[in-house]
Specification:
The protein has one domain. Helix content is 53%, strand content 5%. The protein has helices at 5-30, 61-75, and strands spanning 39-40, 54-55.
Length: 77
């Protein structure tokens, strides 16, 4: 079965979202921040024309504080 342009574009969008989530995960890791629930939102990735959203998920107070510190350090650049 041949892949349609729409399906090809949908897969490209999903791949792009996965790459973006992985890039964010890696950059956060370098700042000692781990968002354990970071993922592509499955509902937004469903259907024939997905518009994938990155779900940052829930995190505890310690993770929020680490994220704030990392962002404040970036302001100083």
């Amino acid at each position: 079965m041949a892949m349609t342009d729409g399906r090809r574009n949908a897969l490209a969008r999903l791949r792009e979202a996965e790459e973006a989530a992985n890039d964010l995960r890696e950059q956060l890791r370098k700042s000692a921040v781990v968002l354990p629930s970071l993922r592509i939102d499955p509902v937004s990735a469903a259907g024939s024309e997905p518009a994938p959203l990155i779900d940052l998920g829930r995190c505890n107070l310690e993770t929020v504080r680490r994220l704030v510190v990392a962002l404040r350090q970036r302001e100083g650049l």
